[in-house]
Design brief:
This protein is mainly β. It has one helix and seven strands; from the N terminus they run βββββββα.
Amino acid sequence: MITETRRAPRMPVPDMVPVRDQMTETVIGQLSNISESGMLLLVSAQLTDDALYQLQFTIPDGRGAFQNIDAGVHLLWREPAHAPDQYWAGFRFLTMDKGQREQLVKWIESRLPGA
């Protein structure tokens, strides 16, 4: 059995959730898992190690609509995925609007086991 040692539990994201770089206005990858402190992406764009990014993705708002999440993030690591020209990339959230953060936490908590 693997014991979770992260500060915040990670939620797998089974749906296709594209993540967009707000500076280049391009989709850089897909959300793979997320917590209130960071996220894992499967990326197809070239990223700079140890760089800061301003990313945006959309989550359900719990009322049948969707809410954009705008996050300032730090790229902590990346490694090749099994598909050509794709990478796994781990990001830490640095900045996020308080209301968006609350919506993100609510979404994560509603989908974790035992919710």
